[in-house]
Amino acid sequence: MNRETLTPSGRFETLVEAFAGAPDVTFPTDDPTAKRGFGSSALKVKDKIFAMLVNDRLVVKLPKAQVDALVATGDGERFDPRRDGREMKEWLVVAPGHEDDWLTLAQDAMRYVASQK
After folding, report:
1. What is the SS3 assignment for 53-106?
2. pLDDT tens, residue order, the chain (117 aa)
3. 58 with 105: CB under 8 angstroms?
4. 114: which residues sit within 8 A by CB, 6+ positions away?
5. Which of 1, 53, 81, 82 is deepest in the core (most CB within 10 A)?
């Protein structure tokens, strides 16, 4: 199946597979008894979320300046998890049509989150 025909879930699964073997990266669990909720289906590094699929869109944690630049160019929007106008400054929801950027943005996010104390 080519990338253009993948569903967002399938595309995220491909993204998860790309991080196989990466040090300190943990993956979403298929365990039905595992705790569900925010971050339960996320990619994490050092137990901190760096990428997740929310409403069929990729959400990544990046430096605020990078998020600002990507928002300014229309490549995404700030993440508003509560949908109440309280946007998260370091989280980007990747715009539709930018699926080819998912891996690069997730790699940037992993490095950024891993570098934080």
Report:
1. EECCEEEEECCHHHHHHHHHCCCEEEECCCCCCCCEEEEEEECCCCHHHHHHHH
2. 455 568 999 999 999 999 998 999 998 865 444 555 555 679 999 999 999 999 999 999 999 999 999 999 999 999 998 888 889 999 999 999 999 999 999 999 999 999 997
3. yes
4. 24, 45, 46, 50
5. 53
